[in-house]
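Structure tokens please, single chain.
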Amino acid sequence: MKKQTLIVASLFVLVLLFVGGSYVYKNANHSVSAEKSAALVRPYAYVLGNPNAKTTIVEFFDPACGTCKSFYPFVKSILKQNPDTLKLVLRYAPFHTDSYYVVAMIEAARLQGKYLEALEVIYKYQDKWASHGTPNIGLIWGFLPEAGIDIDRLKEDLKKPEIDALIKQDIADTKTLGVNATPEFFVNGKPLIKFGKQELEDLIKSEL
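Here you go.
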């Protein structure tokens, strides 16, 4: 009898510890610290939505990441529903093989005013150029004209050192912020603690 009582008491304590720990964790302030906040948003970063919106989503993404591709229309839909109060800041975390060069293509396309066009075409054909862990970014050249991009100019712009510097800064910022997977979201400086579309939507709504 005593043994059973001891087991029940132990289980009760464990449940209490779990519930208490979950409550403390959920209610703790997980926001990016002040000294690291500069790494969240850089002046050069591409912004979607209202630039003056009070709520800022920062997304670190990799164009070869399938989950990033699936979140892209989802986040755009939320932006469309909140055109005045929300903005999305796009940052790079090129973790996959050769993603660095794909990111450079997007930035070079931006110099032609074709940032989103390039990104969307690259996502559209992601299963072709980034399939089965054996990326072939050479295929992307054949897709970019669909976005109205001047390929000759793009190849010249890729040589510009500011593009290289920008990507390196983003990579440095991923290290500062502890971003090690994509997509990674922050909403008004608060990271997405539990990953998921519903969780992201809930976090955004809590900050609107």
